[in-house]
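thread: overnight batch results

M.L. [08:02]
morning all. the overnight job finished for the chain we discussed friday. pasting input first so we're all looking at the same thing
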Amino acid sequence: MAKVEISLEADLVVEVMVLTGVGSPRDAVELVVRDYVERGHRTEARTATRDEALRAVDVKPRDVEG
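M.L. [08:03]
and the structure it wrote out:
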């Protein structure tokens, strides 16, 4: 996989290291980014399931009243 080099403010990286409990700045930032991406995928999966359920309700024929 291709690698990308970026610059971040030191205080931001130190805070990420403290929050994650990881001693390496690169590993700490990578962990946070991977977690962020995984959360996005989980949110998309939950939203898709809910949207599919709503579509299923909309597709059902309505009962005629009266």
